[in-house]
Automatic annotation (TrEMBL):
Keywords: Apoplast, Disulfide bond, Glycoprotein, Manganese, Metal-binding, Secreted, Signal
Protein name per Swiss-Prot or TrEMBL: Germin-like protein
Keyword Secreted: yes
Location of this chain's protein in the cell: Secreted, Extracellular space, Apoplast
Signal peptide: 1-24
Span of domain Cupin type-1: 64-215
Function: May play a role in plant defense. Probably has no oxalate oxidase activity even if the active site is conserved.
Statement: the UniProt record of this protein carries the keyword Ribonucleoprotein: no
PROSITE patterns: GERMIN (PS00725)
The organism of origin for this protein: Camelina sativa (False flax)
Gene for this chain: LOC104744529
Principal location listed in the UniProt entry: secreted
Family recorded in the similarity comment: Belongs to the germin family.
């Protein structure tokens, strides 16, 4: 009986510890706001230093220009305009941010991950095919849907997802994120375009590809092509 109680107590302590640990990457603001100060030469572990509250104005919480479409002439035919803490300093510590997504016809935001945030997206024009894939432990199931104007879809934090314009017009969507700076990892860019490159034999074996095909993909996604 005593052993059981001890185990229970240890479990509760562990739970409490893991809870506070999880909490430290999306902190409670602890005050009304902590507007990010423009200091470029510091190391920021989590968020930024706060501006003196007395010098904070409404502009620190504002951004203009999301009415303007992004330029979708890139190869993927899409463009993401992010509005995160780097554009709105007042977002610092608040755990939210925003983006506008533009798609040319057949435009694609290729499979990618936001390591720090879930995403909630609404289509305001056109038709998107969207989806995310669950983890290995959930058998990598695809959750996918066709969205039209006014439709909303959620992409859970850390899962691979994509959005593609399958309509006859351009498409527009807006998205909210549960982080001031959700981050993006585009799978193909990270895997085939890292610098330096992941050794070719690793990618050939991992993706079961001929070495020449790996070389081709490394040229397509390699940093050299875009820089
Ligand atoms: C922040 O500092 C950088 C570098 O000094 C400067 O280029 C930029 O214009 C500043 N931004 C604001 C909003 O003051
Ligand atoms: C997205 O659109 C903006 C504004 O038109 C443009 O400056 C930027 O280069 C575009 N990004 C890409 C990746 O095409
Ligand atoms: C979009 O970007 C392309 C290539 O960078 C450029 O040629 C074109 O003029 C831009 N379009 C607009 C509307 O800015």
């Amino acid at each position: 009986m005593e052993l059981l109680l001890r185990l229970l107590a240890a479990h509760v302590i562990l739970l409490a510890l893991s809870y506070s640990f999880v909490y430290c990457y999306d902190p409670s603001p602890l005050q009304d706001f902590c507007v990010a100060a423009n200091e470029t030469n510091r190391v920021f572990v989590n968020g930024k230093v706060c501006k003196d509250p007395k010098s904070v104005t409404a502009n620190d919480f504002s951004y203009s220009g999301l009415n303007i479409p992004g330029n979708t002439t890139s190869f993927m035919g899409s463009n993401v305009t992010t509005v995160n803490v780097n554009k709105i300093p007042g977002l610092n510590t608040l755990g939210v941010s925003f983006a506008r997504l533009d798609f040319a016809r057949e435009g694609l935001i290729p499979p990618h991950i936001h390591p720090r945030a879930s995403e909630i997206l609404m289509v305001t024009k056109g038709t998107l095919l969207v989806g995310f894939v669950s983890s290995n432990q959930d058998n990598n199931r695809l959750f996918s849907k066709v969205l039209r104007t006014g439709d909303v879809f959620v992409f859970p934090i850390g899962l691979i997802h994509f959005q593609m314009n399958i309509g006859r017009t351009r498409a527009v969507a807006f998205a909210g994120f549960g982080s001031q700076n959700p981050g993006t990892i585009t799978i193909a860019d990270a895997v085939f375009g890292s610098s330096p490159s992941i050794p070719r034999e690793v990618l050939a074996k991992a993706f079961q590809l001929e070495a020449n095909l790996v070389r081709f993909l490394q040229i397509v996604y390699g940093p050299a092509l875009w820089s």
